[in-house]
Amino acid sequence: MALPLLQYKPTTQNHRVSSFGVADQNEDTPYIYRLEDVSSYTDIQSIIWASYRQVFSEHEILKFNRQITLESQLKTGSLSVRDFIRGLAKSEAFYRLVVSVNNNYRLVDITLRRLLGRSAYNKEEEIAWSIVIGTKGFGGFVDALVDSEEYTSSFGDNTVPYQRKRMEGRPYNLVTPRYGEDFQETAGTVRTDWRRKLLSTLWPRCWACF
User: Is residue 42 part of a domain?
Assistant: First the structure.
């Protein structure tokens, strides 16, 4: 029996400010990429690029991370933008770049930024979704987000996710996944005790002093 998602609610000021809307359009308002607006090959390429930029973030968009099969399916109309986003998030490249180098709490926040267009509301939400990762795996977590009512009401089947709130620091989904504190303390940083290293180097010479 699957565990129900724990309850949480917005508690931070950033999530209580108004969303980008028609009444407050300005130079900081994100451009929205919709499949309905596609009228040429260039337009569909723009949607693909925007999807990579949203899911992988700009500093991770490299040629060998491209998902050619998913791109082809989107171009032929056999795949919706929603499922293209799903496929990118569940790809081996995303797992290698983001999932495998983070603990579940930080992974929740990064994935919410990239798939739902917002950061985690609070620690309670991070814990709630971390339980989903622990019980259903990362793929199940992605499905839960992409199939959620929040995703559907915000983006539907044919819109690339984008930042939905006026939070500081756009683009806010540009988060370096490999440099969380837990990663630095384990796999990311080689720590050397130079005092011990120095003593081991000098010790043989010290015997000559006696």
Answer: yes
Look at residue 152 in the predicted model and tell me its pLDDT: 96
Structural domain contains residue 202: yes
Tell me the residue range of the domain where 100 lies. Answer: 15-209
pTM higher than 0.85: no
* Residue 10 falls inside a structural domain: no
Calculate the average pLDDT of the chain: 77
Assess if residue 6 is contained within a domain: no
Q: How many domains does the chain have?
A: 1
Give tens-digit pLDDT for 79-110: 999 999 999 999 999 998 899 988 999 999 99
d(CA 87, CA 182): 27
